[in-house]
From TrEMBL:
Entry annotated with the keyword Oxidoreductase: yes
InterPro entries the record matches: NAD(P)-bd_dom_sf (IPR036291), Sc_DH/Rdtase_CS (IPR020904), SDR_fam (IPR002347)
Protein name as catalogued: Putative short chain type dehydrogenase
Species classification: Eukaryota, Fungi, Dikarya, Ascomycota, Pezizomycotina
Annotated PANTHER family: 17-BETA-HYDROXYSTEROID DEHYDROGENASE 14-RELATED, SHORT-CHAIN DEHYDROGENASE/REDUCTASE
Species the sequence originates in: Aulographum hederae CBS 113979
Lineage top rank: taxon: Eukaryota
Keyword NADP included in the entry's annotation: yes
SUPFAM superfamilies with a match to the protein in the record: NAD(P)-binding Rossmann-fold domains
Keywords: NADP, Oxidoreductase
């Protein structure tokens, strides 16, 4: 499915991998509805990109916040006439915490809920509200395609490290939901593709600290470096453009398998 003259929603679009995706969609002639909690960056981004981009301040843990942004996006789509053809659910957080902390206390439910609510619940809520609109599109390709869902999992879905129980649970769930979601949506011509990156340059990984980042880079197989955001967005584009990609989880990881100890 082509990107040009179609509208795409990107959550977490103000930073890192989401931001690269927004820029790539835009330079491919797409219209982008950027959703993020970071309103300042979002506003600046729209200033740079111009009339084919809008920003909405959204908290993906809130159903009402997503509803409001879907409504505004669909009003924008009504004005531009460029169908909503895809959603990239990029909003996500790490928030490492071990099962038992230094004082012998168990991981808190607040910490677990925080991660699951954004990475899992927020992803599902965003996608469920978007696909209801995409299903009403007229077919956009000769195959009868009406839309694409791109989910973002992680290497942690397969080999989570110490302190990543909540994160791995959320990203494992995102990977697991890929096939049933594709099966549910097949009758509407909506595909689902999940990308599972390893270590990529972004604000999230900048927060890891130099030492942790360097030791993660060292265990990359090849190339021995963090992935670049544009290497992620290129895979998103392929997910949109290549109609045979469906119901699959693509590891984008330079053959890296995350070790237990660093
Ligand atoms: N960078 C990596 O190495 C890496 C590896 C594997 C998976 N991922 C996943 O890729 C996605 C993007 O991560 P990134 O590395 O670009 O991080 P990032 O921190 O640069 O970007 C994440 C964005 O999500 C937004 N966000 C957070 N909570 C939100 C909420 N409740 N509602 C709306 N927006 C919210 C943030 O404001 C931020 O702009 C995440 O799902 C992350 O788990 C990243």
């Amino acid at each position: 499915m082509k990107i040009q003259d179609r509208t795409f929603i990107v959550t977490g679009g103000a930073s890192g991998l989401g931001l690269a995706t927004v820029q790539d969609f835009h330079s491919s002639g797409g219209y982008v509805s950027i959703w993020d909690m970071n309103a300042d960056t979002g506003a600046k981004l729209v200033d740079q990109l111009g009339s084919r981009a809008v920003f909405y301040e959204v908290d993906v843990t809130s159903t009402e916040s997503i509803e409001a942004a879907v409504k505004k996006t669909m009003e924008w789509v009504g004005k531009t006439g460029k169908e909503l053809a895809g959603v990239v659910a990029g909003a996500g957080v790490g928030n490492p915490a071990k099962m038992i902390d230094r004082n012998g206390d168990p991981i808190t439910m607040d910490s677990i809920d925080f991660v699951l609510n954004i990475n899992l619940r927020g992803t599902l809520d965003t996608v469920r509200q978007c696909v209801a609109h995409m299903a009403k599109n007229k077919p956009l390709t000769p195959d009868g395609e009406r839309g694409v869902v791109i989910l973002v999992s992680s290497s942690a879905a397969f080999d989570g490290q110490p302190g990543q129980v909540s994160y791995a649970a959320s990203k494992g769930a995102v990977a697991s939901m890929t096939l049933p979601m594709a099966r549910d949506l097949a009758r509407y011509g909506i595909r689902v593709v999940t990308i599972a990156p390893s270590l990529f340059e972004s604000r999230m990984t900048a927060m890891l600290g130099e030492k942790a980042r360097k030791s993660l880079e060292k265990v990359m197989e090849f190339p021995v470096r963090a992935g670049k955001p544009e290497e992620f967005s290129r895979m998103v584009k392929e997910g949109v453009e290549n109609s045979m990609l469906n119901g699959t989880v693509i590891r984008l990881d330079g053959a890296m398998r995350m070790p237990s100890k660093m």
